[in-house]
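Extended Data, panel c. Modelled sequence:
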Amino acid sequence: MIDDVLALGVHVMLETDARLAPLFQRSWPAIEIIARGDDLPTGIAAQSSVRRLPMLFRRGPGDFPTRRSYLVADPERVAGYRAIFRRTGAGGRTGVGAGADKSAGPDKSIGLSWRSGNPRTGSGKSTALAAWDGLLGLVGTRFFSLQYDDGGEVDPRLQSNPGPDVKADIDGLAAQITALDHVVSISGVTAHLAGALGVPGHVLLPSAPLWFWFAEGSDCPWYPSLSVVRRALGEDWIPVVRRAGQAVRTQLIP
């Protein structure tokens, strides 16, 4: 909705977490980015939280523009991570255990995020990595962790994150996501970045998600590149991940 504000013909300043400043400045070169904690300019005529902008610009389904993406990752870092993803596990196959899908086609690089460290909302949307067997069983894919905190969970079919610290380096995480063929994530920062970057992906939602994911449907108007896989009330995560795996296979394999 920053573009909607810019269309009003006003000078826009955006105060944000310093970790987001490079990504936002690249994506909106016409606005002034202020890292949170820095001194604010004087003479500001009006101020608003970004959370209030939907009240002005997204009051109904018809207010959502046809815009697949609006964030822009660092192209040099994207190229670097894409080369890493192609080298890692090249020629190999993940998901080679019993019952693995043997018709998944050419290698695809898929990023995963399965747990949240958010102290307020994390417990309701986090999963155990063990529940992801229905997705990790796909042959012809290379899976990469996008977790900033994996909780000590490991799986031999899942490659560790190639970045030094994706929690501190969100611009680097955006480059990783852009370099991947697909992302499957719980409803955390990875999902929001993938949708904002226009990267194809699936989002696993709890039975009572936050308002911006809406209450039903398999898509989300904020993020046209993402598909939503919803957890039913009382359902555990294993069948949810299995449905996501089937959807990923259908989408990625001709």
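The two ends are 35 Å apart (CA to CA). This feature is highlighted in the accompanying rendering.
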